[in-house]
Amino acid sequence: MAAPEVSPHWIGGEQVAGEGERIAVVDPATGETVAAVPAGTAAEVDRAVAAARAAFAEWSALDIGERVIVVQKISDGLAARASDVAATITREMGSPIGFSRTVQAGLPVATSAGLVGLASEFPWTEEIGNSLVVRQPVGVVGAITPWNYPLHQVVAKVAPALLAGCTVVLKPSEVAPLTAAILAEVAAEAGLPAGALNVVHGTGPVVGEAIAAHPDVDMVSFTGSTRAGKRVSVVASDTVKRVALELGGKSANVILDDADLTKAVKVGLGNAWINGGQTCTAWTRMLVPAARHDEIVDLAVAAAERYTVGDPLDDRTRIGPMSSQAQARRVTGYVERGIADGAGVAFGGPGAPDGLGPAYVRPTILTGVAPDDVVAQEEIFGPVLSVIPYTGDDEAVAIANSTVYGLAGAVFGEQEHALAVAKRMRTGQVDVNGGAFNPMAPFGGYRQSGNGRELGRFGLEEFCEVTSIQR
Predict the structure, then answer these.
(1) E strands within 56-184?
(2) I need a labelling partner for 79 at 20 to 30 A (CA). Which of 4, 154, 423, 424 fits?
(3) Structural contact between residues 78 and 43, judged by C-beta atoms closer than 8 angstroms
(4) CA 312, CA 101: separation in Å to the nearest integer?
(5) How does pLDDT run across 277-318, given as a tens digit for each residue?
(6) Whole-number Å distance between alpha carbons of 222 and 161
(7) Is 217 helix (H, G, I), strand (E, B) or coil?
(8) Which helix (H) or strand (E) holds 51?
(9) Edge-to-edge strands of the sheet including 219-223?
(10) What is the pLDDT of residue 4?
């Protein structure tokens, strides 16, 4: 069997093979090694940071209009490579191909194009009394990103950073690293100066920590688990650099007594199991009026029966494998814990569906879950929905706000009633009656879901320092 193709680092505008060990990229649906990336070192991070620092003077000095042109070309280039992006992501982490085409490939294009549209009118300077307030690029940005939306979460950092005039050292997830090469190629073709975007592959404990600790990195923008985010904060604190964190979630979907139950359950289940539940904003807790618990569970089971689990390359598949066998074991362990703690199983249960490989799990609906059960408090990151009964709005809000997280959520009910409940939820974004995702609205969380905001105007502001000049 031929050795897998190695996707190299990208440093200073050049492909760098790296030295020493390689990290296998495994198709979770088949278990086949489809590629490899170099296991980066602290020395390679040093080289990438030096390249980014050298490029900063040229890139930051460009007029915003010139930076806009380049980033627009990057957005256009990603659109042109959409089929490659979708196929790559499905192969490396198992997203169903239909989801990869529409969301995994489509969202980075929409996000970057939207930022381009904002940048020309962004208040790079403003006057406050006798002060001229100037927004300057923060400098060299270290971007550390996860595997579940491997290109979107890169572009959500790289596009606003570049528009602000920053340069970037990116560490993509070693689980799903391959679209970083597509982005680097597209950026070079768009005319981005060598060194303005660098990619160093590797693990978090080696490459991630080297980026977070580096004295010439001015800011770290991290998306990933809360545990890893805490470590990034600790490592970065020695140099007092800016740290932006987008971390885990345990989002609540509050279904009120006056909701359209059919819509609330259908949309709610879809947002719980989106991307196989491997989504930080997934609505994994469905809070339901206690008197209607069984009625809502029946609706959820009927909706769940329409979810096909299988080959992610099949357009009919709605849930593919988990990103890895290890992730599948984690999800199964939580389902078993929920059952042990007294939850009922209305759909699914532990283990893989018949005939599918070890990276698959059975999408599961757990019923009668107590608010303080482990499955109601900890992020599972798989297609597991916990149905939690409540009595009255006050209890629903208290349960929704009862975890260490605060990233997303939803409310379904009469519009004004639902809006009033939504305003009481301590979370970064709330959808009312299925409100559509807005890629220009601020995205981020409360508490241990992180800090700072991505996307749109708020995303641009994250990568700016502010100088006041008194006249």
Answers:
(1) 125-128, 131-137, 140-144, 167-171
(2) 4
(3) no
(4) 12
(5) 999 999 999 999 999 999 999 999 999 999 999 999 999 999
(6) 13
(7) coil
(8) helix 42-61
(9) 14-16, 9-11, 197-199, 167-171, 140-144, 219-223, 242-246, 450-451
(10) 74
Q: At 33, which amino acid appears? A: T
Contact 197, 187 (CB under 8 A): yes
pLDDT over 60 (residue 424)? yes
pTM above 0.85, yes or no: yes
The type of residue at 396 is A
Which residue matches tokens 């593919």?
320
Residue 388's closest CA among 278, 277, 292, 270? 292
Quick check: 455 pLDDT over 80? yes
Q: Which helix (H) or strand (E) holds 210?
A: helix 209-213
Average pLDDT over residues 165-186: 98
Please choose, from the candidates 224, 212, 217, the residue with its C-alpha nearest in 3D space to the C-alpha of residue 445: 224
d(CA 451, CA 407): 10
Q: What are phi and psi of 321, to 5 degrees?
A: -70, 165
Helix (H) or strand (E) holding 85: helix 82-93
Q: Which of 166, 174, 280, 379 is catalytic?
A: 280
Q: How far apart are CA 278 and CA 323, in angstroms?
A: 8
Q: Detail the DSSP E strand segments found in 138-293.
A: 140-144, 167-171, 197-199, 219-223, 242-246, 252-255, 285-289
Q: How far apart are CA 286 and CA 261, in angstroms?
A: 12
CA atoms within 13 A on the CB side of 124: 14
Rounded Cα distance, 91 and 320, in Å: 11
Helix (H, G, I), strand (E, B) or coil at 55: helix
- Asked about 280 being catalytic, the answer comes back as yes
Domains of the chain: 9-247+448-470 (3.40.605.10), 252-439 (3.40.309.10)
How far is it, in rounded angstroms, from Cα 89 to Cα 80? Answer: 16
pLDDT at 2: 59
Q: Positive or negative, the Cα torsion across 173, 10, 170, 84?
A: negative
List the catalytic residue out of 209, 246, 454, 462.
246
127 as an active site residue: the answer is no
Tell me how far apart the alpha carbons of residues 322 and 331 are, in angstroms, rounded to a whole number.
9
Residue 9, φ and ψ in degrees, nearest 5: -65, 165
